[in-house]
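TL;DR need structure tokens for one chain.
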Amino acid sequence: MIVPLELRAISVDDPSALRAVYRVECAATVHARPGWVPLDEAARAAVWQADNGWSHQLVGAFEGDDLVGFASSSTADDTPDTAWVDVCVLPTHQRRGTGTRLARAAEEAVPARVERYVASAYLPTATEIDALVERFAGPLGYARATTETVVELDLATAELAPVVVPAGTTVSTHLGGVPAHLRAQVGVIKGLVDAEAPHGELGWEPTPVSVEDYERELALWRAQGRTSVESIAVTDDGVVAAWTCVVVGADPARPAHVEGTLVLTAHRGAGLGRAVKVASLLAVQAHGEAVRVRTSSDDANVWMRAINDDLGFAPVESEVLVQKVRRGPSRA
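>> reply
TL;DR here they are.
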């Protein structure tokens, strides 16, 4: 007997529902990204439930009581006009139109103030990315906004040495958060990372991170058993000129990942980006909980890609970001 497919909302406060979501997400992601290592279930649930300025709406595709796919739409307080859409369907249920139905349902679940939808996907090759955009994203009305290359560094073989910085500047590394008196400056830099790096057609604007939001992010990572490793370059007059952050998880099989790297415009050209990046990687090596570090850069970001190449990062997969502008008047 054919069981009809039914779409129903899923509450992020329902533990059993989130367990089913986690199983579907893991199965779908491993199918698309061979070798991918997930966060553990509790750590992933913490993302959905965190009080960190993001709101999430989930919709599931059910056959009877069995969840076979889900989609999410997520909005942040600092970018209320943009909703991030994600779709996961069990491999055994793909190519039946379920993903398309879920994506449309997720779009309908967003707040009225949303003006555009953004989605991203990771696949092993650019050719597979092209096929996904043509087959799935394009018919839903999404256009390619930009592409990134994901790279990894093997810490066991990496040859890293501290970088000499100009007189009047000091590089330091901090686990679990930078000193309190520097957090406001670091929040400003974090809000510039996406805006100042190449980002194709996405049109990101600066979104400064408040001290409160910075500390909420640290609290989430601690709850997940993860450690932030932040390196900063500070001038003698107290200006944070450069920043980077690597987040290390409890499972060494899962690569640590670079949250972002930025040098303020007035301080560029002195090697500070490389200096803070190397400092953070040396600290991750010393921390001993990660064997690989993963990061990505927009394919037009020739400066960061050159630094990563020189440090020994190697390509492992491709990422595409697509977007769709919402048509018609906002719902009341």
